[in-house]
Amino acid sequence: MKRVILTIAVIVAFAVLAMLSDAVQVRPPASDEKVVEVAIFEGGYGIGWHTAMAEKFNAAHADDGVRIELWGHPRTADKIKPRLLRGDPPDLVLDERLPLWLLVGADKLTSFNDALKQPSEGGEGLWEDQFAPGMLDMFRSGGNVYAIPAAYGAWTCWYDAAMFREHGWEPPETWDEFLALCEEIKKAGIAPIALQGKYAAFYAWNTYVALLQRVGGLAAINRVNALEPDAFSHPDAVRAAALFQDLVVNYFQPGAMAMTHTESQLQFINGNAAMIFCGIWLENEMKESIRPGFELRTFNLPAVSNSKGNPRLLHGQGMEFLFVPKDARYPDEAFEFARFLVSPANARNMAETIGVISPLTGVTPPEVLTPALRSSLDVIEASDGIFNVRVYMLFPAWRAQTMNSAIGDLCRGDITPEEFGRMMDEGLQRAVAKTDIPIPDHIPYDAKALGETGQ
What we know:
By secondary structure, the chain is of the alpha/beta class. The chain contains 18 helices and twelve strands.
């Protein structure tokens, strides 16, 4: 792997955020007690479950002189960045909004490899063997895993089963059926699809990536992950962009590009739109707004005819990533608590309490999930595997400066699919040329092993 020195500009970018940081109060240790500081991003899942797990862990380790001191905040990243520079970070962090690849390149993170070789907490065998295929790949570099997921993430299409039943609609299995369904929904006076357009760089992007695999197969995903110069200008990528643009122009809710994620999701929940593309967190994020009789369910992206992709694959990855900074005071204890959090022993409670599907194989009991999450688990278990692209996390500046504009322009119809491909490729190659981080080795998906023969 190519190693390069981080530029002063990158260090300054970190330091600027120090002005936003306010002190976090951590109760000091008693005598020779080890106080392990754990920082959790306080988002849609809150920190209540994590706090309860810390108390449970502390009770079990009261005689060991180890205490977890856990705190959370919506701006965890802002608080932690200056501390990483000072060499005084928390011992364990859950916040994937930090530039993790930049931290890997700056040698600021400790590998999970040794911890993954430890026995699973409450399960059989080693911890690493418990993870579902693909869950440990997002931040793997040079044979090391630098961050592990606390949740399973999957990108699917959500709908109201009660509305579908009322109108006699069925979840589609092919793209042609999907478009025909959208026409039927329009005839009923309902917008077919809501879009979190104000944040299209995330929401529209993930739907495009799923469609890219359906059209071009894993070969198309591998081209992007390998950072090939014309990955987005390849005919398969251009066709995927064209299909997505037609879908947005013809079937997405009018005014969607001005809506935030919660505004558009509320349109869906209120029945003004029949479907929405989103991640597994949708129910938890909107639970206070879901009306009686609304039956939230989901389906995988339909198959596209005359294409190369296996439609039984799922656009998915790990989420809610945990990492241990290199300067952590108590890394061994931090890894132990991470192994306790992400464990078969606590998967049931996690699912019941905050509605999270574990990244570990077969440990989330379906009976404790809501019907909506059970439908997600059904999609996961019916899939032949997962796929994802890494450029979104590798190049945050490219995401902000190129991809954000390009995907928004594509959705609005301001550029052609061909122009979209050129913008994405040119911006990505500039990002590759200017990067100050080591670019991790590309490990291609095995298309044949994942059901895409003849590519």
